[in-house]
């Protein structure tokens, strides 16, 4: 029985992924901000009658909460076989996390950066540790600029571009982590899950969502790809890859820039230094 930890697993791609692993009899931990929603998901998964499903409270809006939840896991687990950084949000509005970061950068990227570094020793305890990052083709619109990290420093906000920035950061983190883990038992890979029918589009105007929906795929599709990345023998040696459902996996020039990845890594270490 493998231990699989998934952020944002109460709905969408996270829940579909949890379903895949529970069906195969694994131990799946749902790390979710809303315990009520998470327990509802847990009940549905338990009804499959396989594996083991646990819930842990995690609010990626707060680095302090990320730190505390990670510490709880470090106390209670011996290893994590698969760490899936899935939770994410999209908003057209300029908002800040508890720590003052622009919310999409803070939740989608920086909190997962801290989460991953805190939990890395547990992943390294696994026989073959796997770290999987939910990036997006929207990274093509992204850029990394320190002036966009803190919400109160942003003059002209564009929610779509900020989402792109956060997804570029996810991909750069996957790449630099892969480089740092090269030759070890742990791999780091990223994917664009395709355009997926999920709650992520909840803030879109209804007419836009209805048009978009025609092109969206079901969350079970990326869930199957994630399972493949985690356990398929064809992925055994793949590290630092980026794959995509639906579209060719085109990486932007920035996403291929390992110096940018290293710089972001160093900047991020400074941003979360109080917790490491
Ligand atoms: N859907 C797509 O077309 C698409 C395309 C490319 C990439 N992606 C990426 O795929 C991942 C999963 O997205 P999805 O489509 O499955 O979206 P979703 O259905 O909206 O699920 C997102 C999950 O993230 C959780 N979350 C949001 N903010 C959080 C926070 N502050 N702390 C903890 N959890 C938080 C949500 O919790 P609540 O239920 O409590 O809100 C939910 O469980 C995201 O990283 C997204 O960027 C999606």
TrEMBL record:
Annotated PANTHER family: PHOSPHATIDYLINOSITOL-GLYCAN BIOSYNTHESIS CLASS F PROTEIN, PHOSPHATIDYLINOSITOL-GLYCAN BIOSYNTHESIS CLASS F PROTEIN-RELATED
Record's protein name: SDR family NAD(P)-dependent oxidoreductase
UniProt cross-references to InterPro entries, sorted A to Z: NAD(P)-bd_dom_sf, SDR_fam
Natural source organism: Acinetobacter sichuanensis
Keyword Oxidoreductase on entry: yes
GO molecular-function term, one example from the UniProt record: oxidoreductase activity
Keywords: Oxidoreductase
Family named by the database record: Belongs to the short-chain dehydrogenases/reductases (SDR) family.
């Amino acid at each position: 029985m493998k231990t699989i930890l998934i952020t944002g697993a109460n709905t969408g791609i996270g829940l579909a992924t949890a379903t895949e692993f529970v069906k195969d009899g694994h131990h799946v931990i749902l790390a979710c901000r809303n315990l009520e929603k998470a327990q509802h998901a847990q009940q549905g998964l338990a009804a499959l009658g396989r594996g083991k499903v646990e819930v842990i409270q995690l609010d990626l809006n707060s680095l302090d909460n990320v730190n505390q939840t990670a510490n709880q896991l470090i106390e209670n687990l011996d290893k994590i076989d698969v760490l899936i950084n899935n939770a994410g949000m999209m908003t057209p509005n300029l908002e800040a996390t508890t720590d003052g970061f622009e919310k999409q950068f803070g939740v989608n990227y920086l909190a997962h950066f801290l989460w991953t570094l805190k939990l890395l020793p547990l992943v390294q305890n696994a026989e073959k540790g796997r770290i999987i990052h939910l990036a997006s083709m929207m990274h093509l619109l992204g850029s990394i600029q320190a002036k966009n990290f803190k919400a109160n420093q942003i003059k002209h906000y564009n929610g779509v571009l900020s989402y792109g920035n956060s997804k570029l950061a996810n991909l750069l983190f996957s790449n630099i982590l892969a480089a740092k883990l090269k030759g070890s038992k742990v791999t780091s890979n990223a994917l664009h899950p395709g355009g997926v029918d999920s709650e992520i589009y909840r803030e879109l105007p209804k007419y836009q969502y209805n048009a978009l929906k025609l092109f969206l795929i079901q969350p079970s599709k990326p869930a199957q790809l994630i399972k493949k990345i985690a356990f398929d023998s064809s992925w055994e040696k793949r590290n630092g890859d980026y794959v995509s459902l639906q579209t060719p996996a085109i990486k932007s020039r920035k996403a291929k820039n390992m110096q940018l990845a290293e710089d972001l890594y160093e900047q991020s270490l400074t941003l979360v230094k109080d917790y490491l």
